[in-house]
Design a protein that fits this description.
714 residues; Ubiquitin-like (UB roll); single chain; 12 helices; three-stranded mixed beta sheet
């Protein structure tokens, strides 16, 4: 109790430190900026926020602890005071001259939006050594366009302009504004550059508004010269055709000529099109073979343009390394390394070769508790959809055909197991943010051997476990659909993603059940039963920037998965079952140690391996910058896995919960993190002992877990 009182007093002292102690004498700290809209017009305040030239210190519920840290110094910047200044944030000193400049900037922006009679007044309120500013905004009224008069060059250009009339963004009845006219010039100039007008741009547009007649008449003009040119230099606006196309690449990179020809959409004799140029650029970039792609267009005369595509060198081979480590209070260590070798052009046609190694070792020092797992994989992907000619694909994004094979070996105290997989399918993207993987053929073979006597007895006594682990093969299909607003290795806030996967197995084989032999109630093929099931999982994630406090974001994720065995199977294969715990899931637990439901860890497994048919999880993580490349995090998570046959009465009492904190080293190209997860609600404990209070967080067996990982957990 005494310790809690001391902590409370310390926190109150910390929070109560004056935020103006180090503000220079005669000056004030800028505490807040507010925007008040008057006059009846509805304008989004966020539209005007960027016009304010001086922003106050960010805060959470009106408090910024970093100012308090800064105030621990004396402003000298020497010794320990320099440390406080380095970690803290100096209070923003109010500058009255910036209020007038902010008001002027707001008026300019309102003019841009069409409020030509706008007025803004900055009102400053002071109390002691604190200043608060309120910007009172009267936007005035906007003018609607009554009539549009066009002045367009005659001939072929006028015909193309007429074809585009339905796509225009400026119409009678619209409110007149620079923003509206600017959007029209951007849209219209892009349209004409796709029609062959190579050197046409938005500066060929001229707009004049006439209000003297009592009506607002917009004069919409396109000229054969730009706004920066002399009208005497006016010339006809003409279409350009492609004359010559040259593709150059480094001599040390072997590329089959047909690949470059098929990827290039810029063809001699066709009209110039900016979309076609961009499509070609994206295609060559997506090959991921070249360090850079540069497309140069050079007018050769009044009607033709030459094209030169320059492909610069890049690294054809490389390695990727990933590592996850964790340990809990009982001393069980978990290490999961991953190593990948890749070649981006193994046969000279943009084929990607990927060779991988994965491992997992779990052990408890000083005991015989240990298990090992390792796997090797090989895959190759071709920049085309096999069976469909590359030249017929019109869009920017080329699908890839993938062939993958893998072998996995598990050596556990209870058994040894081998798993072989072969898959064939396609991957690619649609638009900028949507990715897909479709595998119409997925084949897997599982062999279980060298069972311990106790584990064999466990399997024989539990038909569900026996069906999960026994020798079987998979033959089915799978797909993954993924949408993200930021596909970078270390995404920036805010971002969002949706990931959906589905696997189906055994349905095609089941069509031949009448001619297949059966054994122990299962139809067999090649002497082995086949799996029949459906499995689906969805993940929803979103990151939000929090208020005005720069570098602070809240990331959230929801996970739901369900699998159902039917027909020739009574249980999902072990590899397809869901699990919780680990560096990226319920971090208060080690991998595969949570659930299902109220279940304690199965003692028949020396190394825990808890799995289920259903998974629900909700994660929230507060991320914030500390110093240099270091970031901090605080998180809370809730979820579990369940068996389909034991769902009754499980909700919500069997939902587990944890919280924790972490440190991250963000190097932009990679993020390394350490997380401490602490259990809050453990449904495996006896009733009445499931909630774990602060006195037990870092004590007892398995109440906390430390994880080391690469990349954000979600």
């Amino acid at each position: 109790m005494r310790c809690r009182i001391i902590i409370l007093v310390a926190l109150l002292t910390f929070a109560s430190c004056s935020t103006t102690r180090l503000v220079p004498r005669g000056e004030r700290r800028l505490a807040s900026n507010d925007i008040k809209i008057v006059g009846g017009e509805k304008i989004s305040v966020s539209e005007l926020q960027s016009s304010i030239r001086q922003q106050p210190n960010g805060s959470i519920f009106g408090w910024n602890p970093l100012i308090s840290v800064y105030n621990w110094s004396n402003g000298s910047g020497r010794g320990i005071n320099g440390v406080w200044e380095f970690f803290g944030t100096a209070p923003v000193v109010f500058d009255s001259t910036l209020v007038d400049k902010s008001s002027e900037s707001m008026v300019e922006h309102l003019h841009y939006l069409g409020y030509y009679d706008a007025k803004v007044a900055g009102v400053v309120r002071t109390k002691k050594r604190v200043a608060k500013v309120t910007y009172v905004v009267d936007p005035g009224k906007r003018k609607a366009i009554d009539r549009i008069e066009y002045d367009i060059p005659p001939g072929e250009f006028a015909e193309d302009f007429s074809l585009d009339s339905l796509n225009m963004t400026v119409h009678p009845g619209d409110f007149l504004s620079e923003k509206l006219l600017e959007s029209e010039t951007v849209r219209g100039s892009a349209y004409f550059r796709n029609k062959g007008y190579y050197n046409f741009n938005k500066n060929h547009y001229f707009f004049e508004a006439d209000t003297l007649s009592g009506q607002t008449v917009l004069h919409y003009k396109i000229k054969g010269y730009t706004r920066s040119d002399n009208p005497d230099n006016e010339s006809p606006i003409v279409k350009y055709r492609i004359r010559n196309v040259d593709i150059m690449h480094p001599s040390d990179i072997y590329v089959r000529p047909g690949l470059l020809r098929d990827f290039n959409k810029i063809k001699p004799g066709t009209y110039y099109s900016e979309d076609v140029v961009n499509t070609t650029y994206y295609r060559f970039s997506a090959l991921n073979m070249f360090g850079g792609v540069n497309i140069e267009m050079t007018p050769s005369d009044s009607a033709y343009v030459d094209c030169r595509i320059k492909l610069s060198g890049g690294d054809m081979v490389g390695y990727k390394v990933n590592l996850e480590l964790s340990s809990n209070s009982s001393g069980l260590f978990d290490a999961s390394p991953q190593l990948n070798y890749y070649h981006k052009n193994v046969f000279g046609g943009g084929e990607w070769l990927n060779l991988g190694f994965t491992g997992n070792w779990q052990f408890m020092p000083g005991t015989n508790v240990k298990s090992s797992e390792w796997g090797i994989s090989a895959g190759i992907s071709f920049p085309r959809a096999l069976g469909y000619p590359l030249r017929k694909i019109k869009g920017r994004f080329i699908p890839r055909t993938e062939i993958k094979t893998s072998y996995n070996y598990q050596n556990r105290p209870e058994y040894r197991r081998t798993i072989g997989n072969v898959s064939f399918g396609y991957s690619g993207r649609v638009g900028e943010n949507f990715y897909y993987q479709v595998y119409p053929v997925q084949f897997g073979l599982v062999k279980l051997y060298k069972l311990s006597d106790s584990f064999r007895e466990t399997l024989m006594a539990n038909p569900y476990l026996w069906d999960s682990y026994s020798d079987k093969f998979d033959l089915g299909l799978g797909s993954v659909l993924y949408y993200t607003t930021d596909a970078s290795i270390v995404p920036k806030a805010p971002y969002g993603f949706v990931r959906y996967s589905v696997d189906l197995a055994g349905n095609v084989v089941s069509l031949f059940n009448k001619v297949l032999p059966s054994s122990d109630g299962h139809y067999t093929l090649l002497g082995l039963p086949y799996n029949q099931y459906v499995r689906s999982e969805i993940q929803l994630g979103r990151s939000f920037g929090l208020g005005k406090w720069n570098g602070v974001s809240l990331a959230m994720r929801f996970v739901a998965g369900v699998g159902k065995a039917y027909g020739n199977s009574s249980a999902l294969p072990f590899e397809k079952q869901f699990y919780c715990g680990g560096a990226s899931s319920m971090r208060g637990w080690q991998v595969r140690t949570l659930g299902p439901g109220f279940s304690a860890v199965d003692e028949s497994f020396v190394i825990p391996s808890q799995t289920g048919d259903l998974k629900l999880e909700l994660d929230a993580e507060l991320r914030f910058k500390l110093l240099w490349k270091l970031e901090g995090a605080m998180f809370a998570e809730a979820g579990n896995i369940w068996r389909m046959d034991s769902l009754s009465g499980a909700f919500p009492k069997s939902i587990a919960a944890d919280w924790g904190a972490g440190l991250r080293l963000n190097l932009d190209f990679i993020l390394i993190r350490v997380d401490l997860g602490v259990k809050l609600h453990d449904p495996s404990q006896p009733e009445g002992q499931r909630w774990i209070g602060p006195s037990r967080w870092l004590k007892g067996v398995n109440n906390y877990t430390i994880h080391f990982g690469v990349g954000y957990p979600f």
